[in-house]
């Protein structure tokens, strides 16, 4: 790999590491959503029969937590596979570099009766084919990540905002006659919706950056 | 390009030295590699690290068809010995790899995921072509816990792996010219890298029984004729395991700090 390609490849790897940081912020939100659900349940029980309708909020929060969990698992699975692929790519690339250097040295030494090594030629050809395949696979993984992060926006963020709004309306209706616990819970759900939105936005921006870097790398390798 | 020197040739058996690459990056310790040939078949002794693979294969291909490289013998597990393993497999997939049994499941971590033929502690005969005379002689703890030297009774050459290693300047002569000038390049290495006086002396006792005309180490210079005995005498007198002093000094300091 030339110095320029190598720089682009290293930048790409850095972007992949950075994206992991963004994804790592999503997992704690699953646990916090479960806590919110427990808080909502406890507060509505304290209010008593007047807060019976709040049970829907609790149910929706539990569903949100589950759907967040499965989305995060899906993202992590694709991400781990991407990291593994990049590791293999780097290893293959190092091998190609060594084969290329060997090829040059054998050619240089031809006057000193260096023999041709057909397996070097074969390896170079196969290596380049492998890298082309790996680039295609990397692009495919990034596309998958992009789809999953978009899904996170469509499902988790929107679902959480919807729960926040419905819990606020419900809390205001109930607390015309009761104390302010449910309003606090509704406020917390709203904060959670904002946080999920922020994390999702960060992850989406990073995936988009990663796509740009991957395309640059793809062009550099052509 | 690696320098190549024929050390022995009786028409059937050949020994070839490959080393002192003038283009080797300074960050890598210099290493000597050897090819032993029996007819058109070859084995590579400690073929070196990943970084020197390109120059090694260029050098080896000058001497032998790569398809005729039957085996690699890794005297021990260090990266400068055999971290190029996966690359050798990539150019010769029928290659056998011999290594001390204690390292036989570690060395595949260098890649290639092939079975390593485990050399038992007591040593064995390394097959090469139709010959069965290359003796793998144990030198455990000199420096690695599983470590072998190789003796060829036909060429009277002893491959001594890290024993006799000298950290010489890049442009230093390949053969020892004046033994008295060598200890400055060997002493610190042997004192630090060799942990056991008992192991060292056991190996010396064993190889003193051999008829050796040349001792070829994996780093530094080749000893010929009387320089081989001079080296063995020097090594016998040397107290090794110097890093232990650092540990005991540390114990004293820790005890002092605790008071």
Structure description:
The complex is a heterodimer of chains A (222) and B (259). Chain A has 222 residues and is an all-alpha fold. Chain A contains five helices and no strands. In chain A, helix 2 (27-47) packs antiparallel against helix 3 (55-108). Chain A has one domain. The mean pLDDT of chain A is 85. Chain B has 259 residues and is an alpha/beta fold. Chain B has a single domain (3-258), classed as Ribonuclease Z/Hydroxyacylglutathione hydrolase-like (Metallo-beta-lactamase, Chain A). Helices cover 28% and strands 26% of the residues of chain B. Chain B has helices spanning 53-63, 79-82, 85-91, 183-193, 197-207, 226-237, 243-258, and strands at residues 3-9, 13-19, 33-38, 41-45, 69-73, 96-100, 117-119, 124-128, 131-138, 148-152, 157-161, 214-217, 223-224. In chain B, the strands form two sheets. In chain B, strands 1-2-3-4-5-6-7 form a seven-stranded mixed beta sheet, covered by helices on one side. In chain B, strand 8 (124-128) and strand 9 (131-138) form a beta hairpin. Chain B is globular and about 65 Å long.
The CA-CA distance between the termini of chain A, in Å, is 12 Å
Return the string of H and E elements of chain A.
HHHHH
Could you say how many structural domains of chain A there are in total? 1
* Secondary-structure class of chain B: alpha/beta
Tally of contiguous helical segments of chain A = 5
User: How confident overall, as mean pLDDT of chain B?
Assistant: 94
Spatial order of the strands forming the largest sheet of chain B = 1-2-3-4-5-6-7
Q: Using DSSP, what is the number of strands of chain B?
A: 13
The sequence of SSEs of chain B as H and E is EEEEHEHHEEEEEEHHEEHH
Give the uncertain stretches of chain A in residue-range form: none
Task: Record the SSE blueprint.
The complex is a heterodimer of chains A (222) and B (259).
Chain A: H1 3-24, H2 27-47, H3 55-108, H4 118-174, H5 181-221
Chain B: E1 3-9, E2 13-19, E3 33-38, E4 41-45, H1 53-63, E5 69-73, H2 79-82, H3 85-91, E6 96-100, E7 117-119, E8 124-128, E9 131-138, E10 148-152, E11 157-161, H4 183-193, H5 197-207, E12 214-217, E13 223-224, H6 226-237, H7 243-258
């Amino acid at each position: 790999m030339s110095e320029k390609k190598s720089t682009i490849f290293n930048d790409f790897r850095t972007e992949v590491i950075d994206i992991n940081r963004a994804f790592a912020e999503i997992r704690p939100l699953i646990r916090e959503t479960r806590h919110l659900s427990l808080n909502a349940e406890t507060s509505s029980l304290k209010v008593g029969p007047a807060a019976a309708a709040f049970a829907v909020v609790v149910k929706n929060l539990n569903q949100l937590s589950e759907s967040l969990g499965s989305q995060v698992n899906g993202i992590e699975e694709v991400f781990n596979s991407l990291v593994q692929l990049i590791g293999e790519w780097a290893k293959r690339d190092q091998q190609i570099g060594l084969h290329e250097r060997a090829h040059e040295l054998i050619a240089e030494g031809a006057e000193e009766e260096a023999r041709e090594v057909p397996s070097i030629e074969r390896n170079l050809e196969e290596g380049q084919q492998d890298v082309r395949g790996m680039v295609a696979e990397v692009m495919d993984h990034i596309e998958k990540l992009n789809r999953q992060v978009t899904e996170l926006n469509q499902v988790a963020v929107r679902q959480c905002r919807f729960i926040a709004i419905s819990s606020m309306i419900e809390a205001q209706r109930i607390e015309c006659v009761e104390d302010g616990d449910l309003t606090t819970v509704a406020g917390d759900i709203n904060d959670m919706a904002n946080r999920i939105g922020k994390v999702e936005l960060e992850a989406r921006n990073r995936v988009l950056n990663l796509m740009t870097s991957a395309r640059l790398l793809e062009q550099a390798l052509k | 390009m690696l320098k190549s020197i024929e050390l022995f040739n009786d028409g059937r058996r050949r020994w070839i030295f490959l080393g002192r690459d003038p283009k080797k990056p300074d960050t890598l310790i210099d290493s000597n590699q050897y090819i032993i040939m029996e007819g058109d078949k070859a084995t590579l002794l400690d073929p070196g690290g990943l970084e020197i693979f390109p120059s090694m294969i260029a050098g080896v291909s000058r001497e032998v068809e790569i398809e005729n490289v039957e085996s690699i013998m890794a005297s021990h597990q260090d990266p400068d010995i055999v971290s190029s393993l996966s690359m050798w497999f990539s150019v010769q997939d029928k290659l056998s790899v011999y290594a001390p049994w204690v390292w036989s499941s570690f060395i595949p971590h260098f890649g290639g995921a092939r079975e390593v033929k485990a050399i038992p502690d007591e040593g064995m005969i390394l097959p090469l072509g139709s010959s069965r005379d290359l003796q793998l002689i144990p030198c455990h703890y000199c420096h690695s816990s599983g470590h072998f030297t190789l003796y060829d009774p036909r060429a009277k050459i002893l491959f001594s792996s890290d024993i006799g290693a000298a950290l010489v300047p890049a442009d230093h002569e390949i053969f020892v010219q004046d033994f008295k000038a060598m200890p400055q390049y060997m002493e610190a290495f042997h004192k630090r890298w060799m942990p056991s006086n008992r192991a060292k002396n056991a190996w010396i006792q064993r190889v003193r029984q051999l008829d050796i005309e040349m001792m070829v180490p994996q780093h530094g210079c080749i000893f010929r004729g009387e320089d081989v005995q001079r080296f063995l005498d020097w090594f016998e007198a040397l107290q090794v395991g110097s890093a232990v002093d650092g540990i005991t000094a540390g114990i004293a300091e820790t005890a002092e700090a605790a008071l």
